[in-house]
């Protein structure tokens, strides 16, 4: 059994050593062969600490999580493995759960196993900010509407995937990696299982996400609505408003057409093959 671990990092110097050592211990205790990859956009000494622990370093692109993760997946796919497992770098993921995800995938022949913090009420081990909960609920609703799959969490910290699920992955947004991959898995017909997963308090510095939830939704919502083909509905409304001379609907539709055009210009689809690997 071989697992390629992929960790996106940005200034996680305080947590990265413990995280990598924890992954190594879990892997060795369960007789997994493994490689650990960091796709990194740090300006602290995260890379230096990870390199001392024999992690492969992939330079991030500074163009959003989606582009960095695609580049990371490309590097992971160059080293054959049974699974690719992505996990957050901030120490909030319970690494001891990794064998549960692996065993579930093997026993139930799942293609993708993802974590959810909301399948049980006791999984989040601290006071979860209300604004984060609202943002998560909005994104979960969009995912359900886009896929028909009953997701309960839009941002679980652990994802176990068979390599073949990623080979044809492409993204249209710089900030919608998390949701776009889930939509890709469902629309491609892969078997997905959601498992309960603990979410631990962040021990090293404050989360960078809490203060940016409204900004994050503003960045992700246009792309997700586009993936849902929601813009076609508004195009139709625009045409009908012209026919029946309803100025307010026409204005709303026109703004949507302009927003969609801008979104498409700024976010051309990118795939794993778009990047050269600089694996170290």
Description:
This protein has 280 residues and is α/β, with parallel strands linked by helices. The chain folds into 2 domains: 2-223, Alpha-Beta Complex (Spore Coat Polysaccharide Biosynthesis Protein SpsA, Chain A); 229-266, no CATH class. It is built from 9 helices and 9 strands. The strands form 2 sheets. The chain has a 7-stranded mixed sheet with strand order 3-2-1-4-6-5-8, sandwiched between helices. The mean pLDDT is 83.
CATH fold title of the largest domain: Spore Coat Polysaccharide Biosynthesis Protein SpsA, Chain A
> Could you give the order of strands across the largest sheet?
3-2-1-4-6-5-8
> What structural class should be given to the helix and strand makeup?
alpha/beta
Strand content: 15-25%
**Structure annotation, total helices:** 9
Shape-level CATH architecture of the largest domain? Alpha-Beta Complex
Tally of individual domains: 2
Share of residues in helices: 40-55%
The main pleated sheet reads as:
7 strands, mixed
Shape: globular
Oligomer: single chain
Q: Could you give me the name of the CATH homologous superfamily of the largest domain? A: Spore Coat Polysaccharide Biosynthesis Protein SpsA, Chain A
Number of strands: 9
- Using the CA coordinates, give the radius of gyration: 20 Å
CATH hierarchy, class of the largest domain: Alpha Beta
Strand-and-helix sequence, N→C?
Answer: EHEHEHEHEHEEHEHHHE
């Amino acid at each position: 059994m071989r697992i390629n671990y992929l960790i996106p990092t940005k200034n996680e110097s305080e947590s990265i050593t413990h995280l990598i050592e924890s992954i190594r211990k879990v892997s060795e205790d369960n007789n997994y062969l493994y490689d650990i990859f960091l796709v990194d956009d740090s300006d602290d000494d995260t890379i230096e600490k990870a390199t001392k622990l024999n992690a492969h370093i992939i330079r991030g692109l500074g163009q959003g999580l989606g582009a960095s993760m695609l580049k990371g997946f490309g590097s992971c796919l160059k080293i054959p493995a049974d699974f690719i497992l992505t996990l957050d770098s901030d120490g909030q993921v319970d690494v001891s759960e990794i064998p549960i995800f692996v065993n579930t995938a093997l026993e139930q022949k799942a293609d993708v196993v993802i974590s959810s913090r909301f399948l049980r009420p006791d999984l989040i081990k601290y006071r979860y900010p209300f604004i984060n909960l609202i943002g998560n609920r909005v994104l979960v609703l969009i995912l359900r509407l886009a896929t028909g799959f009953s997701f309960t969490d839009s941002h679980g910290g652990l994802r176990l995937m068979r390599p073949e699920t990623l080979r044809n992955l492409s993204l249209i947004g710089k900030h919608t990696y998390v949701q776009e991959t889930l939509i890709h898995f469902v629309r491609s017909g892969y078997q997905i299982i959601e498992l309960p997963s603990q979410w631990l308090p962040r021990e090293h510095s404050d989360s960078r996400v809490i203060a940016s939830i409204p900004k994050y939704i503003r960045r992700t919502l246009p792309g997700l609505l586009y993936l849902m083909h929601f813009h076609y509905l508004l195009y139709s409304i625009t045409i009908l408003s012209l026919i029946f001379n309803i100025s307010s609907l026409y204005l709303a539709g026109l703004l949507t057409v302009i927003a969609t055009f801008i979104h498409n210009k700024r976010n051309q689809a990118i795939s794993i093959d778009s990047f050269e690997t600089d694996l170290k």
